[in-house]
Protein 1
Amino acid sequence: MYNNLINVVILAAGKGTRMCSDLPKVLHTLAGKPVIKYVVDIAKHINRNNIYIVYGFKGELLKSSFNDPSINWILQEEQLGTGHAIAQVLPYLNDNEDLLVLYGDIPLISKETIKRLCNIKPKNSIGLLTVVSDDPNGYGRIIRKNGIITEIIEHKDISSHQFTIREINTGIMIANVGKLKHWLRNINNNNAQKEYYLTDVIKIAYQDNCFIQSINPIDTDEIKGINNRLQLANLEKIYQNKQAEKLMLSGVTLLDPNRFNLRGTLICGIDVVIDIDVIFEENVVLGNRVKIGPGCIIKNSFIGDDCNIYPYSVINNSNLSIQCDVGPFSHFRNNVNLDKNACIGNFVEIKNVSLGSASKAKHLSYLGNSEIGSNVNIGAGTITCNYDGKNKLNTVIGNNVFIGACSQLIAPISIADNVTIAAGTTVLRDVKNANLVLNSKQQIHKKNWKRPSEK
Ligand code: UD1
Ligand code: MG
């Protein structure tokens, strides 16, 4: 059985002029992730130890966006064409190995398609991924004689009778390293773009009695590249629609699948309902019967069964138990744990807090660095004063505590179980042996006072 080592090269040296950007093209994001990272993920399915990225424009920026010592970085100082790019990698590879060529700007290629391509045994052939396209403009055209591939001609080099050819080169191919070294020595840059085209090896290989075998991707969207921001936006739409479709077919209700955005992974229980314009980032898990209102942004969080997240709430890095109510307009800044039946209402900002079961902060509060027990009521406008200008300080609130509206809890502070804090109290020290705390302020009710008149 032929079972050669497959190296994977990802071409990413091009500047991507048409993006009109300071950022290398392949670092622009699709669903929140740099496009090249999709390609690297696919490469890892093939061989995680033999991945080569050919880089050039803003290379250091590109390299530093990966924290992955397994990637081999190959500098192509001048971008003289795809053939020249591949030639930079070949000296590092053995003649009896194979080379799979992927493009850093074609992110949606599937591992199934690549696996089928890799099943072609390139010892005596080249495996080429081609597509019959309704719009072949801009792509290299596949030339066949009696059905056999003999050549690829780049769009800028085709003659008028070849304009009607609809089979295009996706750029993705697999070939034997030794043969590639030999063929690439024979290409030149006598063409419209004055570049060394990798595609020119096809004709040379054919003349060398090599069989060029083509396969087609399962889905033509897989080979869509990104050359400008319009194409990037279109690909984002395609990608989001596919994710939405998958979720709906697995039982999730999306009130408008065209206004759904997943930038990471989303796992849902049964009968989840997601309203319009919700954004999910990183890894989110929604339990059974969770309802997410419109305009919410949920990042890296777990939301338990029967929770309701009302409109325009933002939840980051948090963990909600079952039957919690959140929002509208709540902001979970980071690291919030809600126990069963807890409730965080409108205009509450909350960070580094654990809130016990059935505890509530329903209106206009800031809660930070706090451990709050169960059955606690946090009145409207209550603030944990957790910052002395230099340090973050903790607040501990026991079970069954009632905090009256507009109170300030000056941290570090601890309030025992069952305590009541009267409305408008500034709590300055720990409450241990009392069940009511209030500020003694004299209040005057004047009878004959008048508002000042205009002078
Ligand atoms: C290439 C193919 C074309 C195919 C199309 C599919 C060639 C000559 N043409 O054309 O047949 O239909 O892709 O999208 O291969 N790159 C480098 N170094 C270079 C030049 C390019 O790393 O010197 C990288 C780019 O960053 C990009 C990829 O190679 O990731 C393709 O280059 P690009 O200039 O986009 O080639 P196309 O003209 O699209
Ligand atoms: Mg291109």
Protein 2
Amino acid sequence: MSAPLGNLSAGQFLNRYWQKEPCLIRRAFDDFEPLLDGNDLAGLACEEMVESRLVRGSMEKSDWTVEYGPFDESDFSSLGEENWTLLVQDVEKHYAPLQALMGRFSFIPNWRLDDLMISFAATGGSVGPHTDQYDVFLLQAEGTRRWQIASSFEPELLRDCPLNVLQRFTPEQEWVLEPGDMLYLPPNVAHHGIALEPGMTWSIGSRAPSGADLLQGLGEWLSFDTDEGGRYSDPDLQPAKRAGEMDAEALRKLRQLMLARIDDSDNVDSFLAAFMSRFRLAHEPAPPPEPIRSKDLLAAIQNGAQLLRNPWTRLTWIETPQGARLFAAGQAFDCSTSLAEILCQREQPAIEMAMLDKPSVDTLTKLINKGHMLLTSDV
Ligand code: SIN
Ligand code: CO
């Protein structure tokens, strides 16, 4: 299946728009049929494991309120016909058939993609004009929504407001999106969506760590390492000149010690991939109640059992001199590059007997026993 980018190829879209400019794609999805509706979404928002928000209010009154799920069915019966939006995160993980939709965005590396957030809005429903830190594809799934955007805006937010809503917003462009239309927005473009009738917007979101996120993660990662990475030493110490001063030479040596500890590239590459395989993951995958043995897994596959990725894991891999190191929700598994690629492919992995040498079966067994992969006979 091709990327849902209209006449643009993935390369053209990335060159011209990705992280640079908004892009409206009319009929990105022809005859789009949403696989769930507002009632299904409300049902999900009542479940314990599901992250959801109910936003009420309007631009005119600036009377925004936000409540967090899980909700009770009775919460929805008193909502009225206007000015509310229900937003649910990670819907493709809670409802596996939607993974195929995420697969249409596989021209973006999977470690850069986050989740499918679905909002159902009543007429007039909006979360106010705001900016996001991540690229997003806003797919109109049902009903119509007017989107207004501005690349220049004053960053001040409304005071005493439970949402990040811009105090002032002057749209530069606006469009009414119909089902199947999609608007791509890079980070930090102010946007405001208002439902013209009841309907859904499906947001395919991306993720990108900040330098601070990486450093915090790196500190945690290194703290599990038994190698302290040397210790400050100064056999050439000179008599102190000014009381209390850390002089330039001491600072240089300390910085050097720290950077040398970080700049062990093999270790750092593993950290980066492990970090990204967990970043913004709301739940950890749970191991199966009974571990499986390699020989039983091989027999199950011989008998036609299939492997599925647990939607609550993230898989990504890096090349190593021996093959691939695959990372799943922060854990590392060594395997061949071909197995790693198959496990990460857009469709569910198609494991063939011919590829099942002993190391591959052992890796798959470990992945199943840590909960990253599921055997179809168990699901
Ligand atoms: C919405 O679906 O109403 C909000 C999505 C967004 O602005 O990112
Ligand atoms: Co937004």
